[in-house]
Amino acid sequence: MDEKLKQIKQTLEKYGQEQLLDEYNRLTSEDQKQDFLDSLLTIDFNQVKTLYEKSKEEPTFVNSKIEPIEYVDKAKLSKEEFKELKEIGTKEIKAGKLAVVTMAGGQGTRLGHTGPKGTFDLGLDTHKSIFEILTDILVKARKEYETDIPWYIMTSDENNEATVKFFEKNDYFGYPKSCVTFFKQGKLPMISTEGKILIDEKHKIKEAADGHGGIFHSMLKEGIVYDMKAREIEWVFIGGVDNVLVKPVDPILIGLSVKSKVLAAGKSIVKANPKEKVGVFCKRNGRPSVIEYSEITPEMAEERDESGELKYGESHILCNLFSLKAIEKVSQMNLPYHIAFKKAKYIDKDGNLVKPESPNAYKFEAFLFDAFESLDSLAILRVKREEEFAPVKNAEGVDSPETARKLYKDFHSKK
Ligand code: UTP
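Above: inputs. Below: predicted complex with uridine 5'-triphosphate.
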């Protein structure tokens, strides 16, 4: 027997994943067989085993001491404070110390658009796509600060090609192509409730993007950290693709980070009401963190301070600034994986495609904000929802194209 096949068989037996050989045996061409074996060699079976074991554990939120975290309200800065922060931040931007990373590797399942979420037409009179809207912001900043701002776009295996093609077809919407770099995020196998790795409809290992927290590893692995160092970047704004009011080039956020001598910062908006399903900034065992809505008790969610504000009211909106030093540090660490139970089509042991009606598979994702706990401090800047947060998440209702379009139009008509 072929040595490679023999070795792989042993590994599959060791980890109880022999069902993968059913697929191998069904393949007819030698090339397909070799490709399949090669893809098996990229899997960390021990990690898959550990992740499966974790899926059986009850989530534990106990043993951590949660406390409110300090923040700076941008609207309450005095004229002098504002001026000072703006000057510090502007100096950094003009000196070419800022890079922007847009995380566009998500599947956008809730929106249900075919193709990368960034290619979605927001429905403005101009029919601009989300990517064009984001590019407009950078084109304007490049002019204002008279500097090239390197833009890195994180894609996934699934949407990388379509994303790059979209930018090529549209001449990068007027942003210099030399300033734009695409890189792919990592992926992990999806497994059944019995811990078995699934096969997808293309007869390959069923894999899914490893969550936005995978960004740090990917930046290191794909040479982005190296590239940033070579360009003498010091600050990196990291945001999601789906906020059409994102402000990635913000001298106040940079100024605040420099002045407070922190390695990272995050923007917050006031939680709309105690029951809103958002994660909020907090301190966990004395360290900066985000507590998710599924984790916070109803009592804590209702707690208010002397001035009547929610004690846990600073919503995390995935608009964060990291020093390159912080990125380097986090990229060497292993962030925890969170488990999602999803509907996933797969090929069964007889080679038939199964399209489940309800969730059937585990997907593993790292969350970017889990990186905060490894940093000693985090500056938080509270900004206004109507100025900086218009998410496109759902096909309709809250956080949909309709609500984002309205926020976008209202904001731009006021300028
Ligand atoms: P979401 O958590 O909203 O996920 O991502 P999503 O994939 O866009 O949408 P749903 O949940 O399937 O409907 C927040 C941001 O993080 C990026 C997304 O592209 C979005 O900008 N992201 C998410 C990644 O880049 N990679 C991931 O693995 C997950």
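The domain at 76-270+317-389 is CATH 3.90.550.10 (Spore Coat Polysaccharide Biosynthesis Protein SpsA; Chain A).
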